[in-house]
Specification:
The protein is α/β, with parallel strands linked by helices. It contains 17 helices and twelve strands. The strands form two sheets. The chain has a seven-stranded mixed β-sheet, sandwiched between helices. Bound molecules: NADPH dihydro-nicotinamide-adenine-dinucleotide phosphate and (2Z)-2-iminopentanedioic acid.
């Protein structure tokens, strides 16, 4: 697929020239501009009024030094980032990623996608993302705390409950959010809903932990049903074993599927009897161990080092829930050959463009990340609502909102795809539906 509209083709070239050596950002922008070509053909005002040019440039980028001391007294210096991409429809909203691979291009790709994802939720949240090249793996709690305190000592100047509300992402879970929130509260002398994914004792929302994985399955369930299929009796492969993967496994299993494989960055386990999720939770959420340890207590399970092989395991439904570009064209071909009928993206941009083309070309059902994993940020917005009200909803109430949001989101994306001549293409539908609300708000503001 290429960008059909001539102006957008030129814009893509300018994005590459102005943002050199940021391939993930280019990839994310290219996909959106490809989808939006028929929209700007029909509505040239989006080009004329500068909406397209503004959208590919973050409103603000904050880049800072994060010095911290390890347990032995050695000083380390990491880089911190917050890209405040778009506040067109609400305060910047999006996670923080702590992973050694983080650099500005990764944060920009994630922040750019977040604009459209957040719009798709139907809730009033703009797009942003942040993080650091800090690696929490192998660090003590005290080291993670000192790092988070140093990170927030700079970040607190730029965020606030009505300005920018960060949350978790890879390497940032409940522990990190606790340290970050504690430091923000101390620096500002304010108890506000400045972060989401908080602990339940200090303003967190029930069901936020489960929301991305559950939402992914709610979205996929809608897509499957429309095609006369379901999770019931299906074999499922899930990459990753972090927050998104664990709760996708839980909901898929509740829906009657058998999840047979999960992974981490070291390798994958294949358990043909069905993954023992209680064991995965204990290993990953409590003990912070490698997934290879699963095979120590489950002799029937196979452990294979390396990540890519997971997609060669026969399955009906694949849920990539680890990281960007983890499922390439070869993996897509293996899934197609094994009669897989649906792929739903839990991670952000986990399928390469070649893989997406192969999967859609072979007629598989395909749920793109910015629609399928929007349940996490949607529930973060529900956490913001509860904090503003100084009130809380039950697990069932939040989960019911999440279910409705994901169902509406599926139908809106499907309708937008059909309206612009791409019936069944949820990549196009999600990009278009997400764009329109943001773009119309930008038009209303004039040139700002
Ligand atoms: P976690 O840190 O909880 O888990 C990440 C998982 O992915 C781990 O199993 C990790 O393995 C694996 N992983 C990370 N990086 C790599 C890599 N480079 N190669 C192979 N495996 C890797 O993160 P989340 O579950 O929160 O996030 C997973 C994905 O979902 C990300 O793409 C994130 O952006 C996206 N997402 C998250 C949301 C959320 O609410 N948390 C919401 C929407 C999207 P290991 O432990 O070995 O590093
Ligand atoms: O990619 C994402 O949507 C997230 N990491 C969740 C962001 C949020 O603000 O909850």
């Amino acid at each position: 697929m290429s960008i059909q509209n001539e102006y957008l083709r030129g814009l893509m070239e300018r994005v590459i020239a102005r943002n050199p050596a940021e391939p993930e950002f280019h990839q994310a922008v290219r996909e959106v501009l490809t989808s939006l070509s028929p929209v700007v053909d029909a509505h040239p005002e989006y080009i004329k009024e500068g909406v397209m040019d503004c959208l590919v440039e973050p409103e603000r980028t904050i880049k800072f030094r994060v010095p911290w001391e390890d347990d032995k007294g050695n000083i380390h210096v990491n880089r911190g980032f917050r890209v405040q991409f778009s506040s067109a429809i609400g305060p910047y909203k999006g996670g923080l990623r702590f992973h050694p691979s983080v650099y500005e291009g990764i944060i920009k790709f994630l922040g750019f996608e977040q604009i459209f994802k957040n719009s798709l939720t139907g809730l009033p949240i703009g797009g942003g993302k942040g993080g650091s090249d800090f690696d929490p793996k192998g660090k003590s709690d005290a080291e993670v705390m000192r790092f988070c305190q140093s990170f927030m000592t700079e970040l607190f100047k730029y965020i606030g409950p009505d300005t920018d509300v960060p949350a978790g992402d890879i390497g940032v879970g409940g522990r990190e959010i606790g340290y970050l929130f504690g430091q923000y509260k101390r620096l500002r002398n304010e108890f506000t809903g400045v972060l989401t994914g908080k602990g339940l004792t200090y303003g967190g929302s029930l069901a936020r932990t489960e929301a991305t994985g559950y939402g992914l399955c709610y979205f996929a369930d809608n897509m499957l049903k429309e095609a006369g299929k379901s999770f019931e009796g299906a074999t499922v492969v899930i990459s990753g074993s972090g927050n998104v993967a664990i709760y996708a496994c839980e909901k898929a299993t509740q829906f009657g599927a058998k999840v047979v494989a999960m992974s981490d960055s070291g390798g994958y386990i294949y358990d043909k009897n069905g993954i023992d999720l209680a064991c995965i939770k204990q290993l990953k959420e409590v003990e912070r161990k490698r997934i290879s340890a699963y095979a120590d207590t489950h002799p029937q399970a196979e452990y294979h080092p390396g990540c890519a092989g997971i997609w060669t395991i026969p399955c009906h439904i694949a849920l990539p829930c680890a990281t960007q570009n983890e499922l390439n064209e070869d993996a897509a071909k293996a899934l197609i050959q094994n009669d897989c009928f649906a792929v739903a993206e839990g991670a952000n941009m986990p399928c390469t463009p070649e893989a997406v083309d192969a999967l859609q070309g072979a007629g598989l059902l395909f749920a793109p990340a910015k629609a399928a994993n929007a349940g996490g940020v949607a529930t973060s917005a529900l956490e913001m609502s509860q904090n503003s009200m100084r009130f809380y909803w039950s697990f069932e109430e939040v989960d019911a909102h999440l279910h409705r949001i994901m169902t509406d989101l599926y139908h809106n994306a499907a309708a937008a795809a059909a309206q612009y001549g791409k019936p069944g293409d949820l990549v196009a539908g999600a990009n278009i539906a997400g764009f329109l609300k943001v773009a119309d708000s930008m038009l209303a503001y004039g040139v700002v």
